[in-house]
Specification:
heterodimer, A: mainly alpha, two-stranded antiparallel sheet, about 60% helix, B: alpha+beta, Alpha-Beta Plaits, four-stranded antiparallel β-sheet, about 20% helix
Chain lengths: ~900, ~90
Amino acid sequence: MQPISPDVPAARGLLDREDLLELLDRAVTKRVTVISAPPGSGKTSLLRAWAERSSNLRRVAFVSVARDQRNPEQFWRAVLDAIRSSADSTDPETHPSATAVLDGNQVADSVLLELAEHVEPVVLVIDDLHELKSAEALTQVEHLLAALPSSARVVLSSRRDPPIRLHQLRLADEVAEIRGGDLRFTERETRELLAASGIGLSAAGAAALHQRTEGWAAGLRLAVISLNGHPDPEQFVAEFSGTDRAIGEYLMAEMLERQPSEVQRLLVRTSLVERMNGELADLLAGRLGSEQMLLELEEANAFVVSLDAQRTWFRYHHLLADFLRLELRRTLADEVPDLHRRAAQWLADHGDVVEAVRHMLAAGDLTDAARLVADHSFRWVLDGQAGTIDAVLQAFPEGASADHPDLALTHAAAELNHGRLEEAAAQLALAESHVQSAPPARRRRLSVAIASLRLALARRSGQFTDVIEQVNLLDASIADNSNDAIAMDSELRAVALLNLGIVETWSRRFDDAERHLSEGAALAQAIGRPYLEVACRAHQVFPTTRVSLVSARERGRQAVALAERYGLGDRPILAPALGAIAFWAIWMGDVDEGESALRRAWEVAEPQIDPAAAVLLHLVTGQFHSARGQHQAALEAFAAGAQAQSRLTGVPALATPVVGWLASTQARLGMPDEARETLAGFSAETGPMSFIFNARAVICLAEEDPAGALDVLRDGPGVTPPTGPAFTLVETYLLAGIAHLALGERSAAAAAAEAALAAAEPDRLIFPFAMAGAAELLDALPRHETAHGALLADIVDVLRGASTPSISRERLSQPEELSPSELRVLRYLPTNLTRPEIARELYVSINTVNTHIRNIYSKLGARDRSSAVQRARELRLLSTRRS
Amino acid sequence: MATLPGLYAIRIRGRLGATALSAFPSMVSELKGSETVLTGLLEDRSAVYGVLAQIEALGLELLEFRQITAGPPARARKSPSSGEDASPG
């Protein structure tokens, strides 16, 4: 679908119907005009003529609904494009929606915003509204009309009365209607049309023609085409008046018959496609020169319409197209499948996959169509074109995916994209059961796609148990660089690498993850897929045998910077990167940086679609509170983390730190029994077990059993120096030191403290000192005896910071709940964006933003933006609260 | 709300030619004066609306759209004598 430019020169043979133009002028003084009349009444011609004439006086945005439009998002995008291209200056930079992924509702909101933003009056013309077959989109049109800014006007044109409630507007006298009767040619207009077309016909002949056609515009125009150059116009009219054939069919048949044979051939064979350019028309007509013929036809009559200002794309008047299609099937039935195949091939080669699929299905080539769809489904998901997938899938016969694994696969991708996990799993099982029957050349691509989707499904459900073996399969499949692999499209390969890398990350196979995510990111960059690139980079944030902690932290920052450069800074996929930045910052004692990264992480995160990342964020939240000495808040966060972790199956992810820190915190808050219960309820899989041993030692210390603590620590794995950062070893030494101190063994305590400092030094692991409550122990260490004075000074700073909790971080009484939309707007208040800019960011109207801000102020008891921000910070609405 | 297959009669203004008639392959046509009457079994409601859409798309003028029998044609109505005709005329 594309907006029709009103600049297209009006076809000859069209009459400027002055009375009607004035009728429409009067109509648009009302907010809404409805033109409702049967096909061929001249609705589009009138609207085009009016738009062309009015363009000096006001902005006219003209959009024609694509045939059988079922996709609200595509519909609104076309409307939005029409409005934007009707503006004098179009600055693409200010219109981010071209790349952003939006649903129909959001685009509909942007339309409203766009209309509201302009002071000069805008008339939005929506032609062929009867082709809009989406109830959702029609409801959105209704909302648009109800909320229309006062300077804007809407003209709806349809074959039937649109199913839109207008009674409120009618009561306010804001609806004008133009119906079939208004559009009929008068006898005077009939005479003018004939004269303007250079047809000499007697007054009686003109009257007979008018009477026979009853002023029906299409009938008159068809008659004019046949009369043009007719040897005996009176004879034609007499015959026409004398026959009792149906008017439209008679005149169309007459018109067609009077065309030269090559034009007939062109018209009939090209009626198969919705729109054509010269090249496609040549291909279907089987001869050259179609473009010239189409141009001449457009100039000669209103039944061929060019779709762009350059006049390279054409379509037929719907009435004629339907007639020609019948004629094609009636007279050339044998050729129809071949013509469909030719059209499909051309359209597929030129990127119009949706139409290509339609033609393949019409030709009965179900398998080819399924394959084409499957080959594009990953691209569509990545492009945010979920609606396209849905529309294409609807074109297939019901139940077709039972026989076509490619189709089942696409269904699975679509279901997954909609968050319908069970349906996605069912379709994947269906696809899987057919893999072996697929042709060998397709088999591998199918297996990789299925494995990748299964991993993606596991990522969203947190149920990793069944997919772990798929990881090895996928790893082996995509490592193979044979010709086979080249046949796999890059999008699929990059998606597979991403899914593989993420599952490996949460399986703690960090080296494998590193390998796959690096390759995935590089490939994504090469093929211009920013989202995939960011998604890969956002998970490359854990230290490995080759990547140091400092590098991992830096990579997190780079992933965030990259996302911001691409305008993807608010995507949920960024949560792991932001969470990791916070995690490593707090480990290294930069608690303030950790706090701001953590706050942002919660803002972008969507725990329900990425449960593993949610575990990380809960863990870091608890860690942050621990670093600040807020043990109760830390306990709640760790408990939430443990619960989120328990919903994951099959991967260790962050199980041991979450459980270990939860138990330690319980013990420190005087709940050693609960702490033991926590540890007892944890069945070890893999992961650094030293977190668990340290927690046991903390419990002993809390029960005033320092000797027991030392026993536990001696049994633990922590005393052998690990490779990589000494995350738990520092705490192990500290706990030993605290135990020695409690036993009165000061020199052993000092030695343990010094060992802890030595272990912490390489990666500046400051957090364990706060977590363990090591202040007293460090006091026991004579300053001049340590070789780590600078680190010690930093540690003391952090410990001091923790001991002076600021009032603002205390929990305050809960205010009236902010709604999710209000919370979304609230997020932008600390920025320097203006209200219109916030509205644009959120794809809502400025009025909506104003309302939300009013409500936010009132609920928070704030007077202005800065006091609202301050109050929201106090209430922690800008950090960890998520719905 | 399952609609049983039914026999329908459709009256259209003007005599239809071969092209227009090919749009209604499942119906039998009969030319009556300056009208065309299409008669045929329509499977369900979708089929009914499909025929209506064709009539609209071809710019034909619909005069009457009437169900002659509901359900299996064999089942006769209770009062065969009344000769009731649901057509609005």
